[in-house]
Amino acid sequence: MSRHARPRGLSARGLLSRGVWPLAAAGLSLVLVITAIVVLSLRGEDSPVVTGPAAVSVPGPAASGADGGLAGQQLYADPKGAAAEQVRAWESAGRTADAARIRKIADQPVATWFADESAGYADRVRQLVTAATTAGRLPVLTLYHIPNRDCSGQSAGGAADATAYRTWVRAIAAALRGHRAVIVLEPDAIAQAVEGCLDDRAAKERYALLAEAIGALRENPGVLVYLDAGNPTWITDPSRMLAALRSSGIARASGFALNVANFETTADNVAYGTRLSGLLGGAHFVVDTSRNGNGPARKGAGNKHWCNPPGRALGDPPTTRTGVPLADAYLWVKRPGESDGACGNGAPPAGQWWPEYALGLIR
Asked: Which spans of this chain does the record mark as coiled coil (predicted)?
């Protein structure tokens, strides 16, 4: 990987035209204002500031009020993750102190990644969401299988072609049916395309596949989908992301995701996300805080500051109570302790569990 609540009502601009029936229009405006205030009060949101008889807050195309949102939801911690297995192994071996340290990761609700078409992948999705439903918690899944994934970087791979990707996504959508889940969709995919790693034809196909994936996943009423939008130091001008995000179906998504597998601070991500949200008409976002406790590594000659950099730390624990109106959740999307790639210091290939690095993040 090379860099690494929900959209609410969008404010309508302009006043209601009064035409030849000024009193009727004013009356209609008053009805709309009252209706908006009542709806917002039922949702527990602040009433809009009314500056005139027709300055009404109305839901926009990305609003997802029917899905219940993330605020206050309890996230699911999968007891079968690599960190949990490491805890059990070290406890059996008598390494109780190190096992207790790794438990700081194992006990947290981290995302489960689905990144291939290995046998039974849809069954694994179904088992995960069923277990989470039984526990009364909300699972977080990361889908990472777009064709030409990572543009030949450390996490290269993905579906063989568009047809294979569509089949994969539809199988996952079917496995999610009847359950609730949070989906972080295709880390890096849009930012890499905006950066120019794909030709125009391939970029357009990628955007179309992402839009189709959002449509398929959102057919399940309880599924929230956050489309990855890079991080603050990658595409530094958020306006450059707009056309690609819109082509990729952001209007149907629950929002966008930031900082996946990266180390940028929570504050910097919130500032960037707020700017991007303003350009998108109020879209909400989630932030990956799994490894940003010490912020990013210093850039330097020969220093792959994004690939297993030393001296990093766990960030804010996963929560759906961020205190930031636009930030629906701080999530551990990248599983702390899994490698970014075989980029030195004895690191294993991308995605493999690396207990020594996990201990470093905890210390």
From this structure: none
133-157: average pLDDT = 96
CA distance 38 to 18: 24
Question: Whole-prediction pTM value?
Answer: 0.82
Domain range annotation of the chain: 82-362
Query: How far are the Cα atoms of 86, 189, 209, 222, 356 from residue 92, in angstroms, in the given order?
Result: 10, 41, 46, 39, 18
Residue 47: predicted pLDDT: 32
Is residue 56 pLDDT above 70, yes or no?
Answer: no
Longest distance between any two alpha carbons in the chain, whole Å: 84
Active site residue 228: no
Catalytic residue among 188, 228, 268, 288: 188
Dihedral, CA atoms, 362, 228, 64, 320, nearest 10 degrees? 10
Query: Active site includes 46?
Result: no
Q: Is 262 known to sit in a ligand binding site?
A: yes
Helices (H), 56-161: 82-92, 96-106, 121-135
Pick the CATH number of 82-362 from 3.20.20.150, 3.20.20.70, 3.40.50.720, 3.20.20.40: 3.20.20.40
Across the chain, where does the E strand assignment appear? 10-11, 57-58, 112-114, 140-143, 181-185, 223-228, 255-258, 285-288, 327-331
Task: Check whether 234 is labelled as a binding-site residue.
Answer: yes
